[in-house]
Amino acid sequence: MMRADVLIVHAAQLVTCAGGGQPKRGAAMRDVCLIEDGALAIRDGRILAVGKTAAIRADYAAETVISVAGKVVCPGLVDCHTHAVYGGNRLDEFEQRLQGVPYMQIMADGGGIASTARATRAAAEDDLLTQAHARLDQMMQHGTTTAEIKTGYGLDTSTELKLLNVIAALDRQHPMTILPTFLGAHAVPWDYANAEQYLAAVIDDMLPAVARSEAWRAFRAQGINGFIDVFCEQGVFDLEQARRVLLAGRDGYGMQVKAHVDEFVSLGGAAMACEIGAVSVDHLDVTPPHALERLAQSNTVGVMLPAVNFNLGSTHFGNARHLIEAGGSLALATDLNPGSAPTPSLPLVMAIACRYQKLLPSEALNACTINAAAALNMAERVGSLEVGKQADLIILNTDDYRALAYEFGSQLVEMVIIKGDAVWRRSA
Ligand code: NIG
Ligand code: FE
User: Fold this and answer.
1) pLDDT per position in the chain (428 positions), as tens?
2) Which of 79, 80, 82, 83 to mutate to test the pocket of ligand 1 (most atoms within 8 A of CB)?
3) Do residues 271 and 298 make contact, with C-beta atoms less than 8 angstroms apart?
4) 2-76+384-425, what's its fold?
5) Phi, psi (degrees; rounded to nearest 5) at 368
6) Mapped to the 3 state alphabet, what secondary structure does 367-386 carry?
7) Which positions ≥6 away from 109 have C-beta within 8 Å?
8) How many Cβ atoms are within 10 Å of 105's Cβ, its own excluded?
């Protein structure tokens, strides 16, 4: 008999999303690797064994045995694209949009990202931390156990560093696993004449300051190498500018590459980012079929953010089916931010993706677990219930995992376990 710290037994469905350290591609996205009457053993915050309850009980003993009869156990969800640290809100712009003013028009008129940057510059670091901590709590209560968080609402060196400090403090204080992304090239702020001038500041001042900051080094010390990202879009940063800033981060400081591409106008950002070895390309709302096929041939994960389309009242969504049918690897994320996606909920994102992008619940769940982990280059640590990985899992008050995407606006998450510790449970 082997000793474990915790056994979780008798799950109606234990959904592992096992990927062997790899994202799932194409037709494999329909397989969530489901074990009926499943169980798992946890020791020292890691998964020791996964299987049928009878087999696990025959081999393992633990002081804490949690019986979850009639419930689903699945991997903690991974939100691989968020802008969760910001000041202020965009409620006035919400009303403007409802009255017909387009999102990019508000940005061109000096609102949008710039308006959040003004509020974020004015906010004290402690207040940003308190607010972001509360957002992370909400994400966790919807099942998220790992999250990427971008800077990009400072748009000057000192505020970008302030955001990074907050991200590092969240990593220390919050049970979730956090990954940082430097998104200095998110928008051209009002204090610069044009994108070229601002980009020079991003590359020459911000990037070196970020790379040598204590916050960035604290992540590196844990084996987490942060990302560089850019908003490649008409009227923001063009293809050549986007490539330049991404390469500056990659080649100058060893950062991993991500990019916001093809949200409104396709500038060729998806192909460019694949070519330079991006870990993920995100949005992909208007990516042409040939570029989705090119992406499907690469090791880059395609991340779609359908809560944005929903929030902007659009009926157009990225062609997720084309990417999957071409053999690609798709992840989904919230894009949590005050402008285009004020939501903490990955189950809501799954619900939208199933209805408007015609994903099956199995594909949506893999897209929010193992594939989202791969979009962070973390598929060997999180995103599935496999031996040796972090014991990050959620217990759902349903006996069929498909309910997670079928229902919307409900709360099926009953308990959240991160690194083997129960960090949240719904009060009775
Ligand atoms: O991913 N598209 C660019 N950036 C964010 C939106 C940020 C904002 O509106 O504040 C996004 O949608
Ligand atoms: Fe984004």
Assistant:
1) 999 999 999 999 999 999 888 999 999 999 999 999 999 999 999 999 999 999 999 999 999 999 999 999 999 999 999 999 999 999 999 999 999 999 999 999 999 999 999 999 999 999 999 999 999 999 999 999 999 999 999 999 999 999 999 999 999 999 999 999 999 999 999 999 999 999 999 999 999 999 999 999 999 999 999 999 999 999 999 999 999 999 999 999 999 999 999 999 999 999 999 999 999 999 999 999 999 999 999 999 999 999 999 999 999 999 999 999 999 999 999 999 999 999 999 999 999 999 999 999 999 999 999 999 999 999 999 999 999 999 999 999 999 999 999 999 999 999 999 999 999 999 87
2) 83
3) no
4) Urease, subunit C; domain 1 (2.30.40)
5) -100, 5
6) HCCHHHHHCCCCCCCCCCCC
7) none
8) 13
- Report the separation in Å between the CA atom of 1 and the middle of ligand 2, taken as the mean of its atom positions: 48
Compute the distance between CA of residue 162 and CA of residue 198 in angstroms, rounded to an integer.
19
- Per the DSSP assignment, residues forming a β-bridge with 418 are 421
User: For the chain, what are the domain ranges?
Assistant: 2-76+384-425, 78-374
**Beta-strand pair 60-61/2-3:** parallel
C-alpha 293 to ligand 1 mean position (Å): 25
DSSP 191: T
Residue with tokens 């809100």, as numbered in its chain: 89
- CATH for the 78-374 domain, from 3.20.20.140, 3.30.70.1280, 3.40.50.2300, 3.30.479.20: 3.20.20.140
Cα-to-centroid distance, 67 and ligand 2 (Å): 39
Number of helices and strands in the chain (H, E):
18, 18
**Residue whose CA lies nearest to ligand 1 atom number 6:** 340
Of residues 346, 420, 349, the one with CA closest to residue 385: 420
Query: Side chain identity at 115, as an amino acid letter?
Result: S
DSSP secondary structure of 28-46: GGG---EEEEEEEEEETTE
Q: pTM of whole model > 0.90?
A: yes
Q: Which two tokens stand for residue 260?
A: 């916001």
